[in-house]
Design a protein that fits this description.
single chain; 318 residues; mainly alpha; two-stranded antiparallel ribbon; 70% helix; 1% strand; disordered N terminus; PAP2/HPO; membrane; PAP2/HPO_sf; transmembrane
């Protein structure tokens, strides 16, 4: 399904000293695509490790559970007013929503005549959500490390996985020029869903972050196995395939938001750990969780936008 297909089509090429042999141009294409694919594969591996580390730190240790539980308790403050906004966001997620979202992503890919990509985006959504359910209900456990029973394992978040996976599927399926806008919308929707699960005390921050890493893993895998038939092509003969400036801007803004949110969350977490906050530590921990969710969401989509643009673009002829 994800088999790599070598692009052996001859490319016109010329250099400063005259025409460049077609064989050399083809080698340049393969090298450029191989490098981007290797990076995508490494990202997928790091995402898998990240899921494991998230569980190990926040679920399998008493200190991690205390931090997560503190944020969980902090969500009770102002919950009544916030739930008015959060509940409709969570109500969007359903089996029908997933089916429609997969259908739309596949339809976009088919309309672009990217037949293999249509199968890939469907596999992405299904694979990410099945992975989340297996991890949560079969493979991972939540030990009782705090006083009393604190419930079954809830990592990763199913609602966040659905929101992130359908957003990433659309990001991968849409044309090159549309991806920055689709990415920004995906970040907003996914972050809203993840934070809403915190507001409703359906999940802890680590559950949401693990779900984002699961989707990052599957999205990176699809990028790593981008076949030749799914590469971008110019809209008009001889048109440019240069990465749109909006992609660079969107990527930088999202990475900036991720770094800024991460720094703020880390600083506030340090204050909570030292118990030197001027107000309730549970509220501060809750704010840290929201910032962390927003930061990881922005980073996830920024990375996938860069990977998609890189793996879908053939090397320019010399």
């Amino acid at each position: 399904m994800f088999a790599m297909v070598a692009d052996t089509r001859p490319l016109p090429a010329s250099g400063p000293s005259g025409p460049v042999p077609v064989g050399r141009a083809s080698v340049d294409v393969v090298r450029a695509r191989t490098g981007a694919r290797v990076v995508a594969a490494l990202v997928a591996l790091l995402a898998a490790v990240g899921v494991g580390l998230t569980h190990r730190v926040f679920v399998a240790t008493a200190a991690g559970q205390r931090v997560d539980e503190l944020a969980f308790e902090g969500a009770a403050h102002g919950q009544g007013r916030l739930w008015v906004v959060a509940e409709p966001v969570l109500d969007v997620v359903s089996v029908a929503f997933v089916v429609v979202a997969i259908g739309v992503a596949m339809l976009v890919a088919v309309a672009r005549r990217r037949w293999v990509l249509a199968v890939q985006v469907a596999a992405l959504v299904v694979g990410a959500n099945v992975t989340t359910q297996l991890l949560k209900h079969q493979l991972l456990e939540r030990p009782d490390l705090l006083p009393g029973w604190n419930g079954p394992n809830t990592l990763p978040s199913g609602h966040t996985t659905v929101a992130a996976s359908v957003s990433v599927a659309l990001l991968l399926a849409t044309p090159r020029a549309w991806r920055p806008a689709v990415t920004v919308v995906g970040v907003l929707y996914t972050a809203a869903t993840g934070v809403s699960t915190l507001v409703g005390q359906w999940h802890r921050p680590s559950d949401v972050m693990a779900a984002l890493l699961v989707v990052l893993l599957w999205g990176a895998v699809v990028c790593a196995f981008t076949p030749a038939v799914a590469l971008d092509t110019p809209r008009t003969p001889g048109g440019s395939l240069a990465t749109p400036g909006s992609s660079v801007l969107a990527g930088l803004l999202l990475l900036g938001a991720a770094v800024g949110g991460g720094i703020a969350a880390t600083t506030m977490a340090g204050l909570v750990g030292a118990w030197s906050v001027p107000f309730a530590p549970d509220v501060t921990a809750y704010a840290v969780g929201v910032l962390a969710v927003a930061s990881v969401t922005a980073a996830t989509f920024a990375v996938l936008l860069v990977l998609r643009q890189a793996t879908a673009r053939p090397a320019p002829a010399k």
